[in-house]
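Customer ticket, subject: "Can you confirm the structure for Dickkopf N-terminal cysteine-rich domain-containing protein?"

Message body: Hello, I'm evaluating your service for our small team and ran a test protein. I'd like someone to confirm that this is what the system normally returns, since I don't have a reference to compare against.
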Amino acid sequence: MGTLALLLALTLSASANSTPGIACTTMNDRLDAATGKFTSDCDDASFCSEVGGANGTCQPRQCRRDEFPFGFANATVPPLCPRGSYCPDEGSGCRPLVAVGQPCQVGRDEQCAPPGNWQDLASGLNANGSVCLNSACTYVRRSLSWLGDH
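Agent reply: Thanks for trying us out. I re-ran your input and got the following:
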C-alpha cells in the first residue's frame, strides 16, 4: 500500500507543474500564503507567457532573482539582472526599476527605483531608500529607527 501512495503522490506532484511548451494561464500565478514562494501552472524553471490575454505556454525563465534558485538541477540557470533592473517573480525577463507610485510585486522592495538621496535614507530595513508598500513603490521619508522609540 505504501508503494501505491508514493506513486500517487509523485503523479500528483508531476501534474501540478508543467514543462516548457505546455499550455498555461497567468490567472493561476500566485504567492504561496505559507511560504511566500511564487507558484504557477509552470515548473520552477519556466514561466507562463501569454499573448494578448489569451492562454499561453510555459517558456524557459529569462532571469532569476535568487543567487541559488530552485528547479535548475543539471540545467542552465538564467542570469541575474544587471544593476538598475530587476527580475519579476515569474522570471519573464529583466525590467527597469519601478518609479515611485507605480505598482510593485508584494515584498519586492528591490523592484523600486531609489531617490536621488538614497544614501541618506538607506538602512538595514530598506536597500536603497525605497520600499514596496501596499504593492506600490514609495520613498522612505525618514529613518525607520524611530519606530522603536514609540
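A couple of notes from the result: The helical segments are 2-16, 118-121. The radius of gyration is 19 Å. Feel free to reply with more questions.
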